Hints:
The chain is mainly alpha-helical. It has helices spanning 4-9, 11-17, 21-31, 35-41, 49-58, 63-92, 104-112, 123-136, 158-167, 193-197, 203-227, 232-240, 247-264, 274-287, 318-326, 351-354, 365-368, 397-402, 417-429, 432-439, 451-459, 471-479, 502-512, 518-530, 542-559, 576-584, 586-600, and strands at 147-151, 172-177, 295-302, 339-346, 483-487, 494-497. Strand 5 and strand 6 (494-497) form a beta hairpin.
Amino acid sequence: MVTFEFIKQNLEKAEREYEGAKEVLNKFTEGWEGQRLKELLLGDIDRHREEFNYLTKKEEGLKGKMDSWEYELKEWNKKSREFNEEKEEEKFGDNKKQTSMREDYTILKKAFKKELSKPGEDYVDAFLNHLDGCAKVWRPNKFYSPYTSLVQASGTGKSRLLRELATEKDVLVIYICLRKSGWHGYPNRSTIADYLTKEAHDETYYMGFLSALFRVCKEFLEQLKIQYSGKICGHMFDILISDSNDTELFGLQQSFWGTVMGKMESKDNLKVGKIEDEYIKLIPILDKMKNSSSLKMLLAFDEAGTLIDHNNSDGKDNFYHMRKALQHIPHESKVTGHHFLALFTDTLSRVSNFSPAKYNDPSYRVFLQGQQLYKPFYHLDTFDCQMPQPENTKITITSAIQQMRNMGRPLWANVEEVYVVEFAIAKLLCDHDEAAKIHENKDIEPIKLTIEQSLAILGARVYLEISRVSQQASKLVSHHMRILRHVDDKRESLITTYPSEPILAEAASHVMSHPRILKQILDGVIYSVKNHIIVNAGEQGELVGRILCLMAFDKVIQSKSGLHYIWNKHSQSITVEEFLNAFIGEGNYEKINSVLNETFN
């Protein structure tokens, strides 16, 4: 998506490439009237079609200019895409094995609707039971607000789990992606996101949003049931995650959110009891869903960290005011068997924000009154779900290496072999640009690693126990792929780990093999041990011994010239003799081998 900031930053470059580019920009900046219209034009025009139509009716004098602005913005977008594609071609040439980061979105979108394998316990059932249990006990005098959080590391299937809830369990999931504008990922940032996060809002504003949402849901679903014969909840979810390439579905999404945005401004939505009234009117529609649980509707805010980015004049962020608005949701005595719940998801939900420790909560006083927060859900049992069952697969060293992408989190199986390591490096470092440099083995100064990046790289290869109460435990989950295993009842302590995951280990090995990075990693380890971030270094130098063994293994791999162009070269097998020669020196190995032969022969 082309933003105003992007245009400004690249104006001089674009002028050299495209004659008249500055003239196009000037037409925009000189012609805009009204701050709201200006904000809308910063985004992709197709995403805001409904808002444009609404504005032309509300602001006199805009309608005549709309067509020319739309044409010019489309032309600018077209030129920008051409410019970026030319630059990518210059960078990668004819090497088709290099996949641009622009294709991340295509990879993730393709994977999103694949059939979901479920190892062990059906975690979709577990998730629904958790949500249902939360919704059933919602009482204003017992819980602060009817919401919970879904928290786990990247690539574990949080957003996909929401789709399963809609398609398989027939729960009405109103999905809203609040990912920051311009950030990569799938599903896309929702059309309504700017209305909810771009500025600081208060409780009244979000009350208007909820009232409008329930009212529009009733009207929209009534129409869908007439037009669509399949499962309405699954179809509705697919509408809400659609993008401009899904022409029909995306048109419905724009119509839905456009209507919600239009009704949000109605003062009638701000009346006391309006939220309750509109939800009760929606119940007859929810009754027709093939859903046996009492949870009928879930309002899911994905990538919800953006709600804490803006503070109101009272010093409270948008999340605080959103959950205050949610307090007006009717409880069991008024909607028996037709429960509603809100859900906030993020890579850690920044647990300190969405499910905060009591002493960190801006509403700490509620705990003195006996009110509670629901526990977050983090039991996503998706590891190895893409791996064929053992009885159908003969396991050998060769087949195990071939199956690497099917091991670990399901994300890897949907990424091409030639690209998966760079993709994993980017995820591990939380930095796409540096991942590309490292993967291409460019002899340039890499980034200065943070403590978290150092721990992530080493932790993917060697077991590191990270202090449960350290900031690093939270950051490693939220930004560096570490898995959350447990959150204590007070939400003050996190148990985290890197399970055995071949692709992530391969990516970490590539990073460690870069000549200018290993020292930074070791410095980060020393700092972490001294400051009690790593708590299992061992009294006899066990951690040092493990690192030395890794370095010996890497030395053997790097000495094998035939492996340089193999994508999973660090996962190849080596002999014990090769390892010992690298570990203690070839001459020393021969001496030890001689002594051992004399002793045991």
